[in-house]
Design brief:
The protein is mainly alpha-helical. Helices cover 48% and strands 8% of the residues. The chain starts with a helix and ends with a strand.
């Protein structure tokens, strides 16, 4: 029980520090899960960091408050995937991808009568409804 108490006190202290990984991680979890979960996660981070310092006999290295964003960045993911392919014996050449549309295929230009068929009735050859606020897309095609 004494270890838990000591780690809890250290977690509270780490959460109050500025521009550190532990403070940023604590704030991130506190916003999503609440204070008790954030303290538990910070205790865990401290214990894991302590284990690595003692087991590997290395100095503590501060990751920085933006470590999570750097870890999930496109550049980091690209480097990691290229390295994995090279480890498998592949030669990797990267080229930028062509620009892609966010929602569905390119639709023909709209005109007031474009939805009417030759007989004057509504003809729905392509119909896409985009709902950008939640990213949903519904579409169907008759023909």
């Amino acid at each position: 029980m004494a270890l838990r108490t000591a780690l809890t006190e250290a977690a509270h202290a780490a959460a109050r520090t500025k521009n550190t990984y532990l403070a940023a991680h604590h704030a991130h979890i506190r916003g999503r899960r609440g204070l008790p979960k954030a303290i538990g996660a910070t205790r865990h981070d401290l214990l894991i960091a302590y284990w690595h310092v003692v087991h590997d006999q290395v100095d503590y290295a501060e990751l920085g408050p933006d470590w999570a964003q750097r870890r999930r960045s496109t550049e980091h993911r690209t480097r990691r995937l290229v390295h994995q392919l090279q480890q498998l014996g592949h030669t990797v050449t990267l080229q930028p991808a062509p620009e892609q549309r966010a929602y569905g295929p390119k639709l023909p230009a709209w005109s007031p009568d474009s939805h009417l068929s030759a007989g004057g009735t509504a003809h729905m050859e392509h119909c896409y409804v985009s709902v950008p606020h939640d990213g949903c897309r519904f579409g169907f095609s008759e023909g």
